[in-house]
Amino acid sequence: MTNSIAKHDRAPVTCGGTLTAIIPQDIDQAYRLAQALSGGGDMIPRDFQKNPEKIMAAILKGMEIGLAPMQALSAIAIVNGRPTIWGDALRALVLRAGHMIDCEVTGEGKHAVATATLTRASGQVLKRTFSMADAENAGLAGKAGPWKQYPKRMLMNRATAFAVRDGAADALMGMAVAEEVSDYGPDAARDVTPAPRRGGPRFAPQLPELEDEPEPVPVQHDEETGEVIEDNPHAEWIEESK
After folding, report:
1. Contacts within 8 Å (CB) and 24+ apart, 69-76
2. Which residues constitute the domain of residue 33?
3. 96 backbone dihedrals φ, ψ, rounded to 5°
4. In a domain, 39, yes or no
5. Virtual CA dihedral for 51, 53, 58, 64, nearest 10 degrees?
6. What mean pLDDT comes out for the span 19-30?
7. Residue 14 domain-assigned?
8. Residue 231 located in a structural domain
9. Which of 3, 19, 52, 133 pairs as cysteine with 34 (C-beta 3.0–4.6 A)?
C-alpha cells in the first residue's frame, strides 16, 4: 500500500494579468453563483444572506445596467417594494456612460436651493433644482431622519436624481433612485375599478320574458285497486251512455 497522493490536473497558479469579476454566462452559472454567495455572511447585505433566489434576481437586474454580481448586491436596494440604485452607484453609472454630473447648494435654511448640472457626452447641458420650499410642499422638510439631520445633502440627492432621470436615462435603464423612492412611503395603491352598475350594464340586451309553466295535473288513484286513473277524454261520454 502506498501513501502517494493522487495528482489532479489543475490550472497553474499565476500572478499578474487583469483582475476581472466572475460573470455568469447562463442561468445555471448564475444560480450556482447565487448559491455560493448566499453563505457569504456579512460580505453580502443581510437581506440577501441565505437567500439564493433574491441574490440571483439582484445579479440579473444588475447585469441589465452593467453591474458585476458583487456590485449589484451592494448597489441595488429594495425600497418600498421596488429595486433601486443607491449611494455613489448612481454617479458611477452616469460617469461610466460618458456623462458628467455636478451639484451645489446655494442659500441657507428655508432659502436653500440645490442645483444639479448634468453634461452629456454630446455636450448637451441639463439643469434641475430642488429647493427647501419644494421639500416643504412635498412634506419632507423637517421629516425625522436624514431630512432633519442632513437637509442640504437630501436636497442634493433630489436634484441629482431629477437631473439623471431626465438627462441620462440611458445610464439608469429604468432603475429608480433609492433616495427618491424612500420618500414616497409604502405603496398605498388601491383598486379604483368602478363598481358594477346596479341592474346590469346600461345597454344590456333585453331578453324575452319566460312564459309560466303550466302547473302539473294531480294524479288520481283508484280507491279499491290503487291503480292510476289516466285522463280519458271520453270518460264523461261513457258515463252518460251507461
Report:
1. 69/21, 69/22, 69/23, 69/24, 69/33, 69/37, 70/21, 70/44, 71/21, 73/37, 73/44, 73/45, 73/48, 74/45
2. 22-79
3. -65, -30
4. yes
5. 170
6. 89
7. no
8. no
9. 52
What's the grid cell of residue 228? 292510476
pLDDT value of position 44: 92
String of DSSP letters for 33-72: HHHHHHT-GGGS-GGGTT-HHHHHHHHHHHHHTT--HHHH
Last residue of one domain, picked from the residues 52, 79, 106:
79
- For residue 19, give the amino acid letter: L
> For residue 29, what is the DSSP state?
H
Q: Distance (Å, rounded) from C-alpha 186 to C-alpha 56?
A: 25
Q: How many CA atoms are closer than 13 Å to the CA of 228, on its beta-carbon side? A: 5
Residue 176, helix vs strand vs coil:
strand
51 and 71 in a single domain? The answer is yes
pLDDT-derived band at 238 (thresholds 50, 70, 90) equals very low
Of 118, 230, 112, 214, which Cα lies nearest the Cα of 166?
118
Helix (H, G, I), strand (E, B) or coil at 141: coil
Cell numbers describing residue 130: 430642488
Q: Are residues 71 and 143 in the same domain?
A: no
| pLDDT tens digits, one per residue of 131-159 | 999 999 999 998 888 999 999 999 999 99
CA pseudo-torsion sign 152, 153, 154, 155: positive
Q: Is residue 126 classed as helix, strand or coil in its secondary structure?
A: strand
